[in-house]
TrEMBL record:
SUPFAM superfamilies reported in the protein's UniProt record: CRISPR-associated protein
Pfam family, any one: CRISPR_assoc
Stated name of the protein: Type I-E CRISPR-associated protein Cas6/Cse3/CasE
NCBIfam families, alphabetized: casE_Cse3
Transmembrane regions listed in the UniProt entry: none
Gene3D superfamilies: Crispr-associated protein, domain 1, Crispr-associated protein, domain 2
């Protein structure tokens, strides 16, 4: 595996591409980063977009430029004048019981049966929790917030059973965002939420698979990449 920190030379983008980058357009950013892997016909990387903190300065004019973390099974090739990657090879040596601090942006979903449909329909976990609150006539904002965060945490807790990890404590849940991407005659909708906390490795082989291939859905749109460090 290779983990890269990728910076974008914004002067190499046209106006529409620059606006998409600054708006966090997941589809456009995925297409942009794919240029680092020109010899691959299928997506072989995970990515996460953040704002480069060292570019933030005090004052109303301050604006950080996006930076991407990209995990791939081959090293990326820089695109001169556009994409610059700082890359390091990863070969984690993990053991059962290892404690790791983690950050994860994920698309947590839940399947619900709907009348008149044979297949279950997937829903955003946090929005589903709000709907359940409405049905239970729970209107207190603090209680609704607590229940939505609990639903998000439970989703991640359940992933650990097959992902080779368990949560050491309740993770921080933040950054909830709904994404709407219009492509030709198709609209793509998904939600993302940021998790941060500490986990314990229970099955190194399963957990390495999570690190390499991501967690949850919408992995082609900037979700699923788990960043870890020793706790």
């Amino acid at each position: 595996m290779f983990l890269s920190r990728v910076r974008v030379a914004t002067e190499g983008l046209d106006r529409s591409a620059l606006l998409a980058l600054l708006a966090g357009d997941a589809y456009s950013n995925h297409q942009l980063l794919w240029r680092l892997f020109t010899d691959r016909q299928e997506r072989n990387f995970l990515f996460r977009q953040e704002i480069e903190s060292e570019q933030l300065a005090p004052g109303p004019e301050a604006r950080g430029l996006p930076v991407f973390y990209v995990l791939s099974d081959e090293p990326p090739v820089n695109v001169p004048g556009l994409l610059q990657a700082e890359t390091k090879a990863l070969s984690p040596n993990l053991k059962t019981g290892d404690r790791l601090a983690f950050r994860l942006r994920a698309n947590p979903t839940v399947a619900r049966k709907q009348q008149g449909r044979e297949r279950s329909v997937r829903h955003d976990v946090l929005m589903d929790a709000k709907v359940q609150c409405q049905r239970a006539q729970i209107t207190d904002p603090a209680e609704v917030q607590a229940r939505t965060e609990h639903a998000a945490s439970t989703w991640l807790l359940n992933r650990g059973a097959t992902g080779g990890f368990e949560l050491t404590a309740q993770p921080q849940v933040s950054g909830y965002r709904q994404h709407f991407i219009q492509r030709k005659n198709r609209e793509i909708r998904f939600s993302s939420v940021d998790y941060e906390g500490v986990l314990t490795v229970t099955n190194p082989e399963q957990f390495l698979n999570v690190l390499a291939h991501g967690l949850g859905r919408s992995r082609g749109f900037g979700c699923g990449l788990m960043l870890v460090r020793r706790s």
